[in-house]
């Protein structure tokens, strides 16, 4: 949970087109207690992939202390039309405010479906901490 709530946190977001072409990018994130929030150009490959497929895979941390999150797209909202609370949550945690940045930036809200976390080989057996959107621990 600490990685999700850290200030100025970044997340690697993997997405795939319907043709199967994978794409991986780093993005700033915010956590609202239930969803990962990212902001990006709506026309970007990543946004298009996630909106079309309805899913993404996110990674936080380092290779020796990593959290992997399989997430479903809950909704996409244009930044300029987003509720103030959503935009404020993102701006506060991400230390970046996309409001007024120009372009067609959207917030994508990603709801975790499975979360795996581990540090070393000895923890791999018990790494799943969320399954089907339900916390196991």
Structure keywords:
137 residues, alpha+beta, Pnp Oxidase, Chain A, nine-stranded antiparallel β-sheet, globular
Question: In short, what is this structure?
Answer:
This protein has 137 residues and is an alpha+beta fold.
General description of the model:
This protein has 137 residues and is of the alpha+beta class. It has one domain: Pnp Oxidase, Chain A (Roll). Helix content is 18%, strand content 47%. It is built from three helices and nine strands, in the order H-E-E-E-E-H-E-E-H-E-E-E. Strands 1, 2, 3, 4, 5, 6, 7, 8 and 9 form a nine-stranded antiparallel beta sheet that branches. The longest helix is centred in the middle third of the chain and has 11 residues, at 84-94. The radius of gyration is 15 Å and the shape is globular.
Q: How are the SSEs ordered, and which strands pair?
A:
Elements: H1 2-5, E1 10-16, E2 22-28, E3 30-31, E4 36-41, H2 45-53, E5 55-62, E6 65-78, H3 84-94, E7 105-118, E8 128-131, E9 134-135
Antiparallel strand pairs: 1-2, 1-5, 3-4, 4-7, 5-6, 6-7, 7-8, 8-9
First-residue to last-residue Cα separation: 12 Å
What CATH calls the topology is Pnp Oxidase, Chain A
Q: Order of SSEs, N→C? A: HEEEEHEEHEEE
Low-confidence stretches: none
What's the CATH first level? Mainly Beta
**What's the Cα radius of gyration?**
15 Å
Class per helix and strand makeup:
alpha+beta
Biggest sheet, in brief? 9 strands, antiparallel
Please tally the β strands and state the result. Answer: 9
Name given to the CATH architecture: Roll
Number of domains: 1
Helix content: 10-25%
What's the overall average pLDDT, rounded? Answer: 87
Number of helices: 3
Work out the strand percent: over 45%
Shape: globular
Find the CATH superfamily: Electron Transport, Fmn-binding Protein, Chain A
């Amino acid at each position: 949970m600490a990685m999700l709530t850290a200030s100025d946190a970044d997340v690697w977001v993997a997405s795939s087109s319907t043709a199967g072409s994978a794409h991986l990018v780093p993005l700033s994130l915010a956590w609202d207690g239930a969803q990962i929030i990212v902001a990006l150009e709506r026309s970007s490959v990543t946004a298009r992939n996630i909106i079309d497929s309805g899913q993404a895979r996110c990674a936080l941390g380092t290779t020796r202390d990593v959290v992997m999150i399989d997430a479903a797209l809950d909704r996409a909202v244009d930044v300029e039309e987003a509720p103030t609370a959503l935009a404020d949550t993102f701006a506060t945690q991400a230390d970046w405010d996309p409001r007024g940045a120009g372009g067609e930036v959207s917030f994508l809200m990603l709801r975790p479906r499975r979360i795996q976390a581990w540090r070393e080989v000895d923890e791999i057996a018990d790494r799943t901490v969320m399954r089907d959107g339900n916390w196991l621990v």
